[in-house]
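pinging the channel bc i need a second pair of eyes. not urgent but kinda urgent?? the chain im working w is below, pasted from the shared doc
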Amino acid sequence: MKKIFINLPLFILLIITTPGCQQKGTKSMSNDNIEIATLAGGCFWCVEAVYERVEGVTDVISGYAGGHLEEPTYKDVSRGDTGHAEVCQIFFDIKVINYDEILQVFWQAHDPTTLNRQGNDYGPQYRSAIYYHNEKQKTSAEAAIKDAEKMFEKPITTEVEQLKIFYEAEVYHQDYFRNNPNVPYCAFVIQPKIKKLKKQGTIFD
């Protein structure tokens, strides 16, 4: 547990927070125009790199959702037995981009037809999933899957589940592609995807 002490004129306020529940960018929620989408589309390094380049997205946080183990670490999730998926929480300005458009990018950012796998990354932690925050998002997600079925020859494997809790991933996973552009995974997996989506006009530099 992390303890944060804030000195105030009349008293000391003690705030105890759980690291896994903390969200970089929570401050944005004070803005009524900001909404959150929580998506799993393989390695969160890839998903994060894509959405950080989508117009209207204000923040992207890598983490874990959909599992049963409390406070999971990357090592825990990588075993494939905690039930978690690698996910990204995407903060976006609804005046610039809406939830349906966020999902349109989702289908282009990964292959939703490969069960528990994206490329050479395999295991349940790499599954395709949409974790909705409210009923409106659930309805949009279900409709988006029906539309996506027309785009792909193989069946869509994307799960649609209510988000129960999101655990923020370790610091070194955040902004991974931006901070490590030359590591082999980034150079040979993420960079070609970014280049392709830029060419399609889906994302910007």
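so Residues 37 and 99 are 7 Å apart (CA to CA). and The domain at 23-200 is CATH 3.30.1060.10 (Peptide Methionine Sulfoxide Reductase; Chain A). — does that match what u expected or am i reading it wrong
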